[in-house]
Amino acid sequence: MALLLRVVLLCGVADLIRSLSITPPDQMMIEKAKGETAYLPCKFTIGPDDQGPLDIEWLLSPADNQQVDQVIILYSGDKIYDNYHEALKGRVHFTSNDLKAGDASINVTNLQLSDIGTYQCKVKKAPGVANKKVLLTVLEMTSPVITVRNATSEYSGIYTCTVQNRVGSDQCRLNLDVVPPSNRAGTIAGAIIGILFALVIIGFIVFCCRKKRREEKYEKEVHHDIREDVPPPKSRTSTARSYIGSNHSSLGSMSPSNMEGYSKTQYNQVPSEDFERAPQSPTLPPAKVAAPNLSRMGAVPVMIPAQSKDGSIV
């Protein structure tokens, strides 16, 4: 009886060894920084009795424990389905191209704080079934802020900042150059003075241009101002000459006896309007000459016609 029981136990142990199993991961808890890639291992072995189709399933149990487990990636019927969880869509991938070789590990890229939770790997190949869990923690390296108060030029220089936590470390360099404050009042006053000076110059230029245009316009009006209503002045010299010439032509018909009267009358009848502006010298009364003396002087007797008051010859 004891021998039979021992044989049964040995056979049970052998069956357990030969069935599907998942290799325990080296770390049950994985910590990564935000933005990095997390590797979640899941390697399995298949027993000789596991003849069913291979199914692999990864599930996420959120850290708040208020949501149900969600499938994030699935392998079934030689096909991969990774559109189950919207928050991880496009960021979860199997690391192996041949899952039947015994590697169901996945990579979660561009980690976010919402990715924190427990990830469970389930492998099924009937009749064998196995599963393992791993905890993923995402840490955020916050950017440190240094405040320097009442800074002077002595604070100028290169500063190095190093941040370190459980998931790694990071370092940055900062060049600080402290510049004393400028005289803002003087700058504003200078700007105002410059603007006023520019306005004065512009006003002066505009004034000169307008003045020059007015002068040019006035000169054009003066040069082109032709008065057509004023007649040209009369030719006084020609009028006087024509009048005297006509009188000389008529002297040939006059006698010596009436020459004296004619001389007095005719030359006093020259229109004064023709000579009103010409300077006149005082006229002396003509000297009376007797007729015999005129003959001795070579005078020619002419006939002088009589003249009425209005100047017409009778």
Automatic annotation (TrEMBL):
Membrane topology of the entry: Single-pass type I membrane protein
GO cellular component: basolateral plasma membrane; bicellular tight junction; intercalated disc
InterPro entries: EJ_Adhesion_Regulator (IPR052307), Ig-like_dom (IPR007110), Ig-like_dom_sf (IPR036179), Ig-like_fold (IPR013783), Ig_sub (IPR003599), Ig_V-set (IPR013106)
UniProt cross-references to CDD domains, sorted A to Z: IgV_CAR_like (cd20960), TM_EGFR-like (cd12087)
SUPFAM superfamilies: Immunoglobulin (SSF48726)
GO biological process: homotypic cell-cell adhesion
Organism: Octodon degus
Ranges for region Disordered: 218-264
Biased composition (Polar residues): 235-264
Name this protein carries in UniProt: Coxsackievirus and adenovirus receptor isoform X3
Signal peptide segment: 1-19
Matching Pfam families: V-set
Domain Ig-like: 25-137
